[in-house]
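> call design_seq(struct)
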């Protein structure tokens, strides 16, 4: 399924703007999810991007964002802690609820997994939580800078290097991490839980998955990520995780809306998709297509515009007509390319038009033919291009009858 990835921004828990990406299917989203990235990572980290976009390809829209002080978000990382991360998640859910729909799924990677477990009670619409390589205790993260712990305790802060990048860690982060325990929260989750973990994870051991699974009540599921690393750096591992999450979530999500159905190959059915202001679902016989308006007209650009579809019909008909004619003549036509544009012009500026008042629609059609064709064959094909059925329909008198269904 084709997807769109849009940049968005919303205020975080500390009032700073949080940079985000909205990965969504081209048509109606089956449901919406929040994705929380790993400690000191970002929304554009390999696993964040791959899992989110894979879910979008399966019909689930995903909001992934940078926590305060990370990636493209505002604020100072040194002023954040686990509590502020959880509050950022709640702010993200509030924005998603206001702009699209409340998140039905919460997905978190590593410490982000612990964060979605901690935030779940504050997002009542969520029906499921999925964690990827999550620690059973947020304090597990403190092991990443254990060599600097004495300095942090003594001086109140220290600069540490994580994944090759410097970060300023303050004592408030250590104290806050130590104050959180997930056992009680997981036990009272009241949402479906999916724990995904690799037995070869050398950063967050598999025993963390065991502890989370044991603390949770049913419905709960565990899936081994086999030989994946902690960061899901291989594309296949991230895609597999997304596929499992989507399949697991199917059981807990509301039924998908039935697509519009055309009665036969001669009927076209157009129905509002419910995605955005102008989103449409089109059934052409057994084929399904999206339609929308561009963003500058207030749409989401989730599909071709009505005029885009009109030009597409004319271009496709032109190309098909040339193929049929060339094949019948036995001419060496290799490929046809048709480029089209639509605009409105003053009638008085159109020498070929009968109407001389107001504006008229103008379609400019450029036809390119490839192959060992002589000049006469090329001239004739250009004549035939103006004789395709859709071209003739657009230039003839058309009567459209509207009636109530």
């Amino acid at each position: 399924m084709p997807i769109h990835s849009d940049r968005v921004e919303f205020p975080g828990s500390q009032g700073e703007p949080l940079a985000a990406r909205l990965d969504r299917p081209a048509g109606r989203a089956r449901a919406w999810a929040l994705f929380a990235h790993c400690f000191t990572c970002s929304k554009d980290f390999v696993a964040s991007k791959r899992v989110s976009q894979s879910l979008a390809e399966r019909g689930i829209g995903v909001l992934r964002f940078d926590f305060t002080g990370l990636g493209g978000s505002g604020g100072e990382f040194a002023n954040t802690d686990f509590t502020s991360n959880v509050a950022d998640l709640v702010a993200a859910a509030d924005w998603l609820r206001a702009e699209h729909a409340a998140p039905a799924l919460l997905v978190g990677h590593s410490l982000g997994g612990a964060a979605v477990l901690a935030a779940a009670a504050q997002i009542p619409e969520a029906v499921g939580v999925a964690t990827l390589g999550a620690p059973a205790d947020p304090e597990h993260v403190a092991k990443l800078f254990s060599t600097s712990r004495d300095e942090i305790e003594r001086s109140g802060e220290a600069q540490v290097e994580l994944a090759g990048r410097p970060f300023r860690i303050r004592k408030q982060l250590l104290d806050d991490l130590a104050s959180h325990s997930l056992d009680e929260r997981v036990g009272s989750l009241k949402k479906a839980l999916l724990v995904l973990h690799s037995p070869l994870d050398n950063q967050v051991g598999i025993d963390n998955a065991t502890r989370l699974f044991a603390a949770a009540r049913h419905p709960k599921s565990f899936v081994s990520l086999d030989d994946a690393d902690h960061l899901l750096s291989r594309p296949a591992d991230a895609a597999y995780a997304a596929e499992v999450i989507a399949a697991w979530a199917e059981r807990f999500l509301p039924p998908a809306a039935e697509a519009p159905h055309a009665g036969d190959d001669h009927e076209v059915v157009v129905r509002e998709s419910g995605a955005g202001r102008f989103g449409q679902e089109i059934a052409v016989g057994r084929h399904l297509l999206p339609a929308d308006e561009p963003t500058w007209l207030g749409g989401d650009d989730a599909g071709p515009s009505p005029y885009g579809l009109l030009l597409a019909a004319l271009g496709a008909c032109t190309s098909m007509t040339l193929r049929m004619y060339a094949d019948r003549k036995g001419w060496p036509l290799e490929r046809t390319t048709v480029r089209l544009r639509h605009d409105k012009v003053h009638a008085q500026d159109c020498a070929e038009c009968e109407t001389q008042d107001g504006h008229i629609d103008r379609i400019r059609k450029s036809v390119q033919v490839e192959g060992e064709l002589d000049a006469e064959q090329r001239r004739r094909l250009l004549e035939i291009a103006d004789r395709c059925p859709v071209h003739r329909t657009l230039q003839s008198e058309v009567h459209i009858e509207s009636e109530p269904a």
